[in-house]
Design goal:
The protein has helices at 11-14, 20-28, 48-54, 70-79, 99-105, 118-121, 150-161, 164-181, 183-188, 213-219, 221-227, 237-243, 260-264, 294-300, 313-323, 338-344, 349-358, 366-372, 379-399, 401-424, and strands at residues 38-44, 60-63, 83-86, 110-112, 127-131, 134-137, 140-144, 146-148, 203-208, 230-234, 250-253, 280-285, 305-308, 328-332, 363-365. It has 425 residues and is an alpha/beta fold. The chain has 20 helices and 15 strands. The strands form two sheets. The chain has an eight-stranded mixed sheet. Strands 13-12-11-10-9-14-15 form a seven-stranded parallel sheet, with helices on both faces.
Length: 425
Amino acid sequence: MPERVPGARTPVERKGGPTAISKTRGLLRRPARRERPKAGLARVDRRTKRLVQRLQPGEIAVIEHEDLDRVSAEGLVAAGTRAVINASRSISGRYPNLGPLILVEAGIPLVDSVGPLVLRKVREGDAIRIEGDRIYVGERLVGVGVAQTEASVRETMARAQLALADRFETFARNTVDYIQRERDLLFGGAGLPTLDHDLGGRSVLVVVRGYNYKEDLAVLRPYIRDVHPVLVGVDGGADALIEAGYRPDVIVGDMDSVSDPALRLAGGSRGTFRRRRPTEVVLHAYENGHAPGRGRLDALGVPYKVVQSAGTSEDVAFLLAHEKGAETIVAVGSHGNLREFLDKGREGMASTFLVRLRVGEILMDAKGVSRVYSPRLRTRDALLLVGGAIAAMTLVILVSPSLRLYVTLLFEQVRQWVFELRELL
């Protein structure tokens, strides 16, 4: 048998055959773990903001929302959705919208571009599961999409950043188009209804259920308590006011996301707010007069007024307050910069940009108000403070014999002084 040269490998080792060490490493190597499928009951709706209102924690949202915006994504996260199935592209690449990134950073699986048929194949309440990019109802495959990751979303956002110049140009054209179509409404208030609430010389708080609206309402609580502004809720903003403990004075919108209880306040319902004037409802209709929410209001028996505008309901609320003589307009949850206008993903957002310029001399953002407003000391609070101090002093006197004696002597001296003063008179 030939002597083995130290350090030389055998033919088996040269061919990569197993050795004691290689066998040990092979045993220690674990197979790649497959991601567990996500399963839950389905909530199906083409409108994300309607779906969020009934979505329960652990359920799977099935939507059709191209360029998912930040507000919708934050609503899905807050509702506790387990996963999101989007029939459309959550990020089309037209601009770097923030919605998809918010979902994936929150650890919520996102399957994109499944196709509109999934909204027919999946019914409300179906038990569905997601395996990678595939969607199943039971054992039936109902759709295949694109499973998004944080890396894929960021890559698409980077490409979309390059398309912003084109978006800005389109935004500018839409702004000019809005001026031409809505000149009379924008600069003369033509078509705005007469309100029962007097806005002249008063502060108006316009609430949109948008960016950080809950935080804004919380910091404005002293301002609302002291100033008593006219409270205007834009669609779901009316419910935001009610959740915060307020009653909206005016509800403006196309009535697609406001709740029935909020609308019934316009009927003069009795209860907590019985001493207040009934809420007014202003229905936002399209330029051709079509108003999708008209049938709903008629069915509820809610009185309403109509305003036609090519802009958004937010625009109508701002113009209504401005033209009715409001002293200041405080915006809660509204769109305040160009990135937010683009993130909404609608041509009408160009009108919001222009309307903010129109009412800018009296418009303030909620965060700005909270920084410059100093709460006033109310008479009731002052009386409570003085009464508390008197009660504390009385309690101390009662439990201290020396103080009781001192107060008794002081009282006798005052009484003697009053008696002497009466003798002199």
